[in-house]
Amino acid sequence: MDASTHQFDFDKEVDRTKSHSDKWDKYKGQDILPMWVADSDFQSPPAVIEALQERVSHGVFGYTHASETLTDIFVKRMKTKYNWDIQPEWVVYLPGLVCGLNIAARALTDEGQTIVSPSPIYPPFISSAKFAERPLVKAPVKLAEGRWMPDLEEAEEQLSGKGGLLQMCNPLNPGGTVYTREELEATLAFAEKHDLFVCSDEIHCDLILDGEKQHIPFASISESAEQRSVTLMAPSKTFNIAGLGASIAIIPNAKLRQRFSKIKRGIVPGVNVLAFTAAKAAYQHGEAWLQEQLCYLAGHRDYLMQEINALPSMKLEHIEATYLAWIDCSDLPVDNPHRFFEKAGVGLSPGLDFGNRKFVRLNFGCTRKTLEEAVRRMKAAVSSLA
Q1: Of 254, 285, 316, at which residue does a domain stop?
Q2: Per residue in 313-348, pLDDT tens?
Q3: How far, in Å, CA of 265 to CA of 31, rounded?
Q4: Distance from the first to the final alpha carbon of the chain
Q5: How far apart are the C-alpha atoms of 30 and 78, rounded to whole Å?
Q6: pTM value surpassing 0.90
Q7: Which residue range is the domain that position 17 belongs to?
């Protein structure tokens, strides 16, 4: 995108240190750049900020519900962006995606049934099986032609034969893989063979960094996929409104939707009025902002890959989606890569939290200035080992 066409300033430095930010308060008072939890440092789209200001000026914040307009916007968005025809009644609003993972773990399995999860993976996948007290089978995520993919065949021999739930993450976090249609069809075949429902976390679906890649919702590939699935999406990562808490479960199967809603009832609160306001404005007016953000993040991704892969002891595979880099530190002569870089002034997510202590995850949803300083510190730390 030509610089003259830019409407939005993603290089703008916003001080988050006095905003009760989980991300920035973790290292409060320390010279450590926070590059860990998956929220970005970008101000949300102007339309979102304006809509929130207008709603706040109303001054009354009572109990609320989703507007038909928001649901209509979301239904149209699924058709326009992903060629997926969904019905309004399939939509279940949630105050966050993690509660959706946990509800699905309980609603889509019976006692003794298995939950299959990729590993390494976003930690709430693993904890949802633990909290639901279901046996967990890990499908190891392996490198296949430069892309991280779960090896379902390796998980197959550990299955109980009693059915259960397959958790998937598309795009993959960590790793950034965008599933192809063939890969989704193979995943469906595995689920059909072993009588598994599927919970598909697609929260990063709008953050595709490769222009030639296309997100395909798992449930959209066939009637069978649709009827056995719960799809989880949200505007939170896309438009940096995670702190407001607005997520969406899409459940075409009426019986599954009823079970999901029953587990949720009385325990999971509704979505708040400001979250609904932000979600509607983001989906309705945020597309131009999103496209510029994608260009900005793709530039970060390319820079990061060049710099990390120039180091002799670290490796970063191509990231197709997300602003999260899954960095292989296996050849780094340190016992704890996360602690090593933390001491060098860069606060990354420990790979152990995801399932592999020899990796770290770096959030590059930040300004170029911050990213370049983080890379400078990491390079200096690695050089000190020579």
Answers
A1: 285
A2: 999 999 999 999 999 999 999 999 999 999 999 999
A3: 44
A4: 40
A5: 43
A6: yes
A7: 3-45+287-383
